[in-house]
Amino acid sequence: MKSATLNTSSRIILFISAFFLLAVNFLPIWRIELDAPQYPEGLALQIFADDIKGNVDIINGLNHYIGMKTLHKEDFIEFSVLPYCIYGFSILFFLSGVLNKKIGQWISFISFLLFGVLAMVDFWKWEYDYGHNLNPDAAIQVPGMAYQPPLIGFKQLLNFGAYSIPDIGGWLFILVGILLLWSVASSFFVKKRTSVFSVFIGICMMSILSACRAEVKEIHLGRENCQYCKMQISNSKFATAILTEQGKTITFDDLKCLVLYTKENNDLHIKEVYSIPFKGEQKLQPIKQLLILESPKIKGPMGGHWVTFSNDADLTEGFKKLEGRQVSWEELRL
User: Fold this and answer.
1) 260 Ramachandran zone, left/alpha/beta (phi>0; psi -120 to 50)
2) Are residues 161 and 286 in the same domain?
3) Are residues 72 and 184 in the same domain?
4) How many domains would you assign to the chain?
5) SS3 labels along 197-217
6) Are 329 and 191 in the same domain?
7) Is the pLDDT of residue 198 over 70?
8) Distance CA 59, CA 72 (A)
9) Do 78 and 86 touch, CB atoms closer than 8 A?
């Protein structure tokens, strides 16, 4: 007969899960991003356990014109309940680990799973009400149009692209669920699987950190347009991009367009600027790691006179063929 006590890895998982849930109350759980030409850096709502933050005032102003309700945290009873639910699960996981009983492990897993399902159903109902119950006297009315944001993923809403994705706290929720599932599954096998458990924890942590880290998106030639000149990006040797602090990638078909765009948008919060080298691997690289060549013989898609190289040998060859001069990124953006 199998023991009613937990193995070591299952107890560790319960303690780690308890700690992660404590952190969730201080982190954004969900994120809804709105992308439109008039807002190049995008707008974002960050949903915490007890509040809504981000560009709330701007989004409320826009929604007024199409008859959507304004967002106020006082209107959501969930913000009064959710923090206590999270603390309650954290305490439950910790006590289950201390008491060292499989019944506690199962109660923790099943109740957390049900809570996750109910939370997503409640979120969907809120989005449905938010996007369908419109003011009939709104200034802008599109017959048959609803503005329900996606539960997860992307949806086009008029000229806005809406993205709904977990934020850091949400990814921790998902990680806790995966860890609990592992602990329940591992209880059916031998007690000590320390090495496998360690590898599993490492993979989970790497996955969660990777999902939370903002990275520049590669440019798909022929399918994306330059943010400045609106021309289709078709030549990778001149393509560039900006990664904003909000994690949005803004693409350009010429370094000239990127420079002009940054000068006209002084409030743009730039995290990193990228360019595809003229030679070698056609992949976006941080421009601070590249060498920039300026020459009147260079004719970019929009008349720019700059290309980038990834090493001194390619730059030297460019000097010979294009009779140019090397410039720095700081010099170029002035």
Assistant:
1) alpha
2) no
3) yes
4) 2
5) HHHHHHHHHHHHHHHHCCCCC
6) no
7) no
8) 12
9) no
The answer to whether residue 189 is domain-embedded is yes
- Output the six-digit token pair for 298: 């260079």
Answer yes or no: is 43 within a domain.
yes
pLDDT digits (tens, 9 = 90+) for 263-279: 888 777 788 899 999 88
Q: Do both 165 and 264 map to the same domain?
A: no
Cα–Cα nearest to 220, from 282, 280, 306: 282
Q: What is the pLDDT of residues 236-266, one digit of tens each?
A: 889 999 988 767 788 999 999 999 988 888 7
Give helix 168-186 / helix 102-132 axis angle, nearest 10°.
Answer: 150
CA 84/CA 88 separation, integer angstroms: 6
Task: Please state, as a whole number, how many other Cβ atoms lie within 10 Å of the Cβ of residue 72.
Answer: 10
H/E segment holding residue 241: strand 240-244
**Side chain identity, residue 9:** S
Q: Are 197 and 278 found together in one domain?
A: no
Q: For 182-196, write each residue's pLDDT tens digit.
A: 888 776 654 445 555
| 231 contact partners, CB below 8 Å, separation of at least 6 | 225, 253, 301, 302
249/287 same-domain check: yes
Mean pLDDT of the residues in the chain: 83
Q: Closest Cα partner for 18 from 78, 88, 102, 104?
A: 88
**For residues 131-145, average pLDDT:** 80
**What range does the domain containing 123 cover?**
8-212
Query: Higher pLDDT residue, 74 or 213?
Result: 74
Residue 234 lies in a domain: no
For residues 29 and 159, membership in a common domain is answered with yes
pTM for the predicted model, two decimal places: 0.63
Among 107-111, 134-138, 291-295, name the one with the lowest average pLDDT. 134-138
170: exposed, middle or buried (Cβ count in 10 Å: 0-12, 13-18, 19+): buried
Q: For residue 179, is pLDDT > 60?
A: yes
Dump the DSSP string for 130-194: HHH---TT-SS--TT---PPPSSEEEEETTEEEEEEE-HHHHHHHHHHHHHHHHHHHTTS-S--H
- Any idea what DSSP says for residue 283? S
